[in-house]
Amino acid sequence: MFFERPQMLLLLITLLIPIVYIFPKIKQIDSSPYFLFKNKKVTRKFVKNMQGMLYVRSILFMLAWFCIIVAFSGPYWGKEIIPIQKNGSAVSFVFDISWSMTAEDVLQEDSSYISRLDASKKYAKSLLLPNKTDDMVTVSVVLAKGDGYVAVPSTEDHEAVFSVINALSPNLMTSKGSNIGAGIETAISTFPTSQARQGTIIVFTDGEETIISLEKALENAINHGIGVYIVGFGNPKGSQLQLGENKITTFLEEGKIQKMISNLKNKTSLYNIPLYYSKFDDNNYELLKILYPKDFNLQESYQNGYEVKKVPRHNLFILIAIILFVLGMFISYRKISLSKIASVSGFLLILMMFSSCSYNVKESFDLLQGNFYWHQKKYQHAQMKYLQILNLSEESDNQELKQYATFALGSSYVMQNEEEAAFQRLESVAPNAPDEIRFASAYNIGVLSYSVGNYEKSIQSFRNALMINPQSIEAKINLELALRQGSKTVQNNKSQVKTASENKEHSVLKDAVFSIIRENEQKQWKSQEKQDEFQSPTDY
Q1: 267-286: average pLDDT
Q2: Which residue of 123, 140, 166, 509 could cross-link 154, Cys pair, CB 3.0 to 4.6 Å?
């Protein structure tokens, strides 16, 4: 179990109050007021029943208070797979730069041999295809030796990535040993906690570890919803490597890696997170398909990704607290009866089960929760909820709710500046959807088209919105603005009024922006440079 706010558990000390103060007071109740009844036995029975009722009620209230404290501490346990729509790719290259990677046993096409590290450099650079500005991949570079180190933070500047890859050497890190798992753990930290891109880690290694941590790191990556591809370099039969005065034999641990991946896939069979191994001379088609989805799937520019998250359980504790409180109040006005307590508890549990099994109730609640996240500007959380609603509505064939979820999903993409995904969702709203949904979709398409400079489409969308709701003042105003801006654009294109001085001013501003960006990048690089001189200790 994991607690989001464990400091709230300190309130459990308040449970000592009834134990120290209330329970002794209940015990002090005796049968002194005999004058109430002529029969002393009746009086003793009445007092005994009252004491029992007070004990049970106090215990129930204590348990209810306990559940409330636990609920406010934010308990989590268990895991659930949440479907996430990803737009674009983000990859982290993890290079094993231990001394075993310097073994020259990788055969090239010209029958010459190069080192495993040089082969991994060549392989990595082949994955970053040129002229891909429409589908640019963000890349980070992590070095793994005795520890993990971020050499290049996540960036779209592939030239900076190439320059670091070309300089890879075991001398870049003074840490001893081979710790591939630490490199994967560091790579996980390079991905933002909530990002619109599909995250992938590609590990270039021979699989030899002096610190056993790879399997645990792979499982952690899966739990973060990040796919991992391991590319093996070397000779499985072993190669001789001279390190100082020692000659050692180093292997490509292919069998160990494959067995590890097989165990993890069996362990996490419900997770749709990719986890693969391939050798350096295998086709890199699968990796290219992950990095450049547009080239392999022209129908959809987005990917269906998944995130594995811990399940929050605070609602369960709040519900149990309510049940316990109701039972305590019930006992306050009734004689203690186990049958009555069981009846009330059974009724509440049946009500719980009935509400949880109803698709309509669950979908409606999820829709409200998604709208709450949206108004709180937690658009990533809202997107998750809307995707869940969309899947459930398709299973239950609830077309009306499906249209609401489609529109809401498109609106969440608008707020995250994912224009392409937003257009696809908003334009997929069915013609037979409710009028308010069709109007809002057309209206949002008009606003979105205006923002990207497509005034012709914006004009048509606002006209479609007014055909559905002719009374909308906002749509009329926006249509007028789009018509004016569209006419200005036509006049500007005809008259070519843009002067050379304006272009020059734009260029100066652009250069200033780029200089600021480059200055920030240089500061980030300098902050990560180590002051110690590099040494060359062996890994064995």
Answers
A1: 74
A2: 140
Residue 210 DSSP class: S
Half-sphere exposure of 505 (CA within 13 A, CB side): 5
Rounded Cα distance between 424 and 410, Å, is 8
**Which two structure tokens, joined as six digits, stand for 522?**
């240089």
Distance CA 189, CA 532 (A): 24
Which residues in 156-301 belong to E strands, given as ranges? 198-205, 227-232, 239-243, 246-250, 275-279
Q: What is the mean pLDDT of residues 487-514?
A: 48
What is the pLDDT at residue 150?
92
Question: What total number of domains does the chain contain?
Answer: 3
Residues 148 and 230 in one domain: yes
Confidence of residue 230 (pLDDT cuts 50, 70, 90): very high
Residues 85 and 68 in one domain: no
* pTM for this entry: 0.50
For the chain, the residue count is: 540
Let me know whether 139 and 256 are in one domain: yes
Cα separation, 283 vs 451, in Å, equals: 42
Is the CB of residue 97 less than 8 Å from the CB of residue 170?
A: yes
Contact 448, 423 (CB under 8 A): yes
Q: For residue 33, give its domain range.
A: 2-74+313-356
Question: For 180-184, 350-354, 429-433, which range has the lowest pLDDT when averaged over its residues?
Answer: 350-354
| Tokens coding 355 | 């509400």
